[in-house]
Amino acid sequence: MSRFLAARxxxxxxxIGAPFDSTTSxxxxxxxxxxxxxxxxxxxxxxxxxxxHDLEDCPFTDMGDLELPFGDxxxxxxxxxxxxxxxxxxxxxxxxxxxxxxxxxxAIRTLAVRFPDVKIVHLDAHADLRDDYLGQRLSHASVIRxxxxxxxxxxxxxxxxxxxxxxxxxxxKSLAADVPEIIAWAERSPCYLTCDLDILDPAxxxxxxxxxxxxxxxQDLSETLVRLIGGLKVVGMDVVELAPxxxxxxxxxxxxxxxxxxxxxxxxxxxx
Amino acid sequence: MSRFLAARxxxxxxxIGAPFDSTTSxxxxxxxxxxxxxxxxxxxxxxxxxxxHDLEDCPFTDMGDLELPFGDxxxxxxxxxxxxxxxxxxxxxxxxxxxxxxxxxxAIRTLAVRFPDVKIVHLDAHADLRDDYLGQRLSHASVIRxxxxxxxxxxxxxxxxxxxxxxxxxxxKSLAADVPEIIAWAERSPCYLTCDLDILDPAxxxxxxxxxxxxxxxQDLSETLVRLIGGLKVVGMDVVELAPxxxxxxxxxxxxxxxxxxxxxxxxxxxx
Amino acid sequence: MSRFLAARxxxxxxxIGAPFDSTTSxxxxxxxxxxxxxxxxxxxxxxxxxxxHDLEDCPFTDMGDLELPFGDxxxxxxxxxxxxxxxxxxxxxxxxxxxxxxxxxxAIRTLAVRFPDVKIVHLDAHADLRDDYLGQRLSHASVIRxxxxxxxxxxxxxxxxxxxxxxxxxxxKSLAADVPEIIAWAERSPCYLTCDLDILDPAxxxxxxxxxxxxxxxQDLSETLVRLIGGLKVVGMDVVELAPxxxxxxxxxxxxxxxxxxxxxxxxxxxx
Amino acid sequence: MSRFLAARxxxxxxxIGAPFDSTTSxxxxxxxxxxxxxxxxxxxxxxxxxxxHDLEDCPFTDMGDLELPFGDxxxxxxxxxxxxxxxxxxxxxxxxxxxxxxxxxxAIRTLAVRFPDVKIVHLDAHADLRDDYLGQRLSHASVIRxxxxxxxxxxxxxxxxxxxxxxxxxxxKSLAADVPEIIAWAERSPCYLTCDLDILDPAxxxxxxxxxxxxxxxQDLSETLVRLIGGLKVVGMDVVELAPxxxxxxxxxxxxxxxxxxxxxxxxxxxx
Amino acid sequence: MSRFLAARxxxxxxxIGAPFDSTTSxxxxxxxxxxxxxxxxxxxxxxxxxxxHDLEDCPFTDMGDLELPFGDxxxxxxxxxxxxxxxxxxxxxxxxxxxxxxxxxxAIRTLAVRFPDVKIVHLDAHADLRDDYLGQRLSHASVIRxxxxxxxxxxxxxxxxxxxxxxxxxxxKSLAADVPEIIAWAERSPCYLTCDLDILDPAxxxxxxxxxxxxxxxQDLSETLVRLIGGLKVVGMDVVELAPxxxxxxxxxxxxxxxxxxxxxxxxxxxx
Amino acid sequence: MSRFLAARxxxxxxxIGAPFDSTTSxxxxxxxxxxxxxxxxxxxxxxxxxxxHDLEDCPFTDMGDLELPFGDxxxxxxxxxxxxxxxxxxxxxxxxxxxxxxxxxxAIRTLAVRFPDVKIVHLDAHADLRDDYLGQRLSHASVIRxxxxxxxxxxxxxxxxxxxxxxxxxxxKSLAADVPEIIAWAERSPCYLTCDLDILDPAxxxxxxxxxxxxxxxQDLSETLVRLIGGLKVVGMDVVELAPxxxxxxxxxxxxxxxxxxxxxxxxxxxx
Lengths: 272, 272, 272, 272, 272, 272
Description:
Six copies of one chain form a homohexamer. By secondary structure, chain A is of the alpha/beta class. Chain A has a single domain (13-271), classed as Arginase, Chain A (3-Layer(aba) Sandwich). Chain A has helices at residues 33-40, 73-89, 103-114, 143-151, 169-175, 179-186, 218-231, 251-271, and strands spanning 8-9, 13-18, 47-48, 53-54, 60-65, 93-98, 119-123, 156-159, 190-196, 233-240. Chain A has an eight-stranded mixed sheet, sandwiched between helices. In chain A, α2 crosses α3 (103-114) and α3 (103-114) runs parallel beside α4 (143-151). The longest helix of chain A has 21 residues, at 251-271. Chain A is globular and about 45 Å long. Chain A starts with 7 loop residues before the first strand and ends with a helix.
């Protein structure tokens, strides 16, 4: 079997690996995510029976991975920002493969400049709305808070959150929305879609840094993403927080690869 | 992240680790359960969105682990009995972290003396009603049978059983009850709640000695426990049979820790 | 605990291990399946609460494993064909334990001769209808295509397929059926029932060569098999594609052993 | 490949599995040792280049495993004693496969009666000379102390010990001997040879309950055992403390199987 | 860190992955070897302190992996033969990364034609001199026997063999040689150097299909290969039998990558 | 068994866990090192036969772990510096448990102030002398270079280095020394001893971020450390780079715990 995710330059949608995990608070390893997503694509078909469409008919690019330094996240975020900026300027749609959730901030910062009315749709188990984590304001636990700081509450909606602090809870309740609500709220604004895969139940997806019991099924996530992509004007997206080293069965990596396949096909169908 | 389960002495509800697994018939390792539950608490928040309550507001004590000898279970059970007795005498509510299911017998023996009308509510995949296991009457497969010997059938109810022998089956059918039935049956009697985590589906909880395919989801177990604690007069409880060594993903340990968090909060809410 | 699956010769239903996996395209290891199914039977009871029947009351034979050479599959298939032929001639019902899915072809070839009106009922995540895999026509990805070549489309029905190529898709749609449809279609024809365990969700069954996210639950598979066996005239069957090395929790092996237990009891109840 | 260790009855040397590990103080799992030794024999040849002899030319019996109850070790020890007694009465040489080290006591108790001048040769990383372990006198950490109680210091010699308590240390120094010293000391007395595989370095043999860094190489252990068997009048022996679940590479099980092969060939050469 | 093994075309020495393992008799997975060797190169420096030389100064090519079909080995061998032939015709030095040991036969067949006086130097734990394995003459256990058939005994020498059958043993003794003997025997003949990594001790290299206790150290293998490459006229070589799935620590893959680095540098130094 | 490493305050030598690994370049997880070293102490005795001394007779303190933020290493280093400063002011000897190697810099910075003539003795597989790693000057690959910047070449010696870049190699050669050379060089200067456990062979110690094949044995490291501590005036030390998640056998953690035991006893013997 060959990998459907591998270096190539064929279209507007552009995959970029962001192998960074230095602010992960519990179990590191998301740095290995992008590489494993590509490897796991080897065990899947390119055809999606659910969407009745084949990835072979979807032009897309895979730029490979950025070489991000570990430790202080500022230089890594700057590299992501610069890359996303270049892609936007080329009329491309950046699709980040994490890495930890903080990498999304690199994309969001750039998009906030290029699309001043951009809205954020956030799928996750965790609210990621802490102001800081042990004093660090650049943390995977604060990434959506940084987005809120940048854009305001009105331009962020969350789906699937089942873990937060007492302090985050009121904001979590006010940002929660289901798929039709999100589509109505977004109207025709450009949207950035960020999907932390730990929204899935740990049974389905143990390979992540902070598994949170009680999540949704693969089928639910897959259908939710396809519906959101179909209903929103997505200008960038990411799929983050696969830490494949935590799951020796390889099943988490395969789930991530299948989610990426479904998103690529949905983006392609939407775009055409 | 810090652990919310760690040595402290703050309240009436009292966690005690019972790291014993010498009678485990299939895959040992439950001795590592209490330590791993504490470690895994590091990856979870103290706030429960489901109960809208924070464990920070729930005073409880964690006594750490008993140092139980392996082999013949009699001395280990005697140590558990003595500890539970002391706690009851102090007006505390003992909450055992197993270890294998046999450790519950130490608590049940003491409670049968101190609360002569105590009733047992048993959540499990397995009936645990064998009279003996290869001749051993003190076995994790006989623990509820020993409780029935002590208290009679009328004072035991079971929930979730999906595995038993032909010989156990009639008794299993007569003891089976759902949550409202259990609450009605218990009336105002003091109850001991014993939860074998293998009631969960092995997809959710592979880290256990005798996983039994076809179990319930995390959400179902969590809600069932919260409802039972809300509706019963719980005077002691346990959560047993995490064998973390069987699950290198760590997901089973995190599930156990979250169940303990939900139970602690529910006990605290009930108590106040 | 002792194993209920172990060498014995007690009845018409006859288990045979087929430890072969040389054509597996992604993750090999199904060769270890039969041995692990027997080992895992140690952790289960012989009694089925769902069927209210005990395997102890079901006479069956376990012939152990064929010693199949690896590499070119032709000699291994010839050995399976010869074994199945001998069993059919003895009036027995062959029940293969895979091994990869290609081993089914050995049984199907023999049954096509001995039961000229045999029909195939295929449970799987993957269509297995490719004409060849990298030029190899004897491949686990082509096994049902070889059956279709032999018997025609009209004598094959599929259940649970969620992955296929674009080329396979029209045939997949035409062969798909649910349980009542399969039973109606089969009428009184002799049926061969082939169950690729990767029909299960990878959360439940990660221990397989090509896990495909989005599958069915253990309970659904178990009930489907019991209903099919109850409604069809099964003259042979198999359970394939456990690759236990991919799942260090052992949960996949236990799921496979429980499926085999349920099938043996259902075959026995049907037969009596 | 087929297993050279499997049920058969061909000679005087008689393998018996003793799958018991209830007194293991650290990491349980030695119960799975005998089964894994047999399985791992599949990956090895029957021919020993070192001894220039083939196991095919060595008649031996494999009785399979005793079905030992877990928990209190007394009944398990009684079953081992009875089995060894019967084998000695048949003129056979019992060769136990552990299981934890305590199982040796069953053999030693019987041999002390049948061979009143029996001597014990003990290979191990640990002294196993504690009087009790948390009060339990029947413990894997006390097994050689029980032998010393039974036979006196003069009839026990140790090889390879690198871990003990301060209290054990004087006795450890007095019992230590190298191979020529042991052979000279034993003279023509009947000897029981007990080999705890954790004498090996954990790099070579991680699959054990209490790995102790700084051990000997496989080649050293293999040659030591062959020399001891060649120089002593061995009337019984054991190889214990493989806990295969601790080593997912399988290498520990293969090392144990090769040690058993070398011992069987050496016993056979000595006997003929 | 970046990978020093990755697609590039810079020199005469040419790496080709041969991800095939269908004839593996015990534990499959060598198909994943080439990919893991490249990935593991990420954790190593390009500089060799032992050779005081940097791989950065060694031009070499990495063609990536052949896409070999599984099952019958004949088409896979034909693809390897054709590839090696093409490389030889281009004046290149083929360096195969296995895959199982049978892949060497593809190279040997071609070299026997292009270099009629080619000699084979074989490093391994196993003799690989069986005439067939369960009837299959194309097997990893027969690969050197096929070379002997093709070239005669006089043109093959072995190093490190510690496992064979009784039947193979006389030939093993006659082919055994140490490094100076091999260099003297080879004279100025073109040599094919084939290195089965299971020559290493399983402590160092558990990630292989048939680990054989009692092997050599990493340092010994590394120095042996450097000396052989320095003393022979190597026209092709391979490094085979890494099965990375058997070793979740990743250490086997890193050892293989470092061996490849040392060989590339030694070939480069020899060549310049 | 109980842990000899656990919270206590008994003496001048003071253990502090430094669970930080954000700059790890290859495989993260050293953050789990301190906790696992304590846990693994459970499987070892307190008595050292090699030093004929018992840890029970050695007063020492275990402060537990610092709560270090992940990401930018500056605040974590500042916390380590402040802690070490406080300990030095109390007349204590700080003994850090890593964490990645960068944590040593926190100690070295403080010691360079408090002991202006301090010398550094560095045991490691890797030189750690890079000026930066992908632009980050605070990196585990640059930690000894930062020490050289601070103190000059003359005050650093290295032992065991087997991996470096071409650029580092001249400095590596000039800093290399054996034990007697180090003791002679140090004279009566205060020394900081930093031990990266990856100096061990990966067979012995796979549980680390960048395993480097070809290392020393456990016995060699243990004896080297005992000799160095006996011959130097150690004013602080560390043991770093256990990444226990990479080694599911637990053997690496046990090796680390035994090294810590031997160092504590040696420090205690030296001090008294």
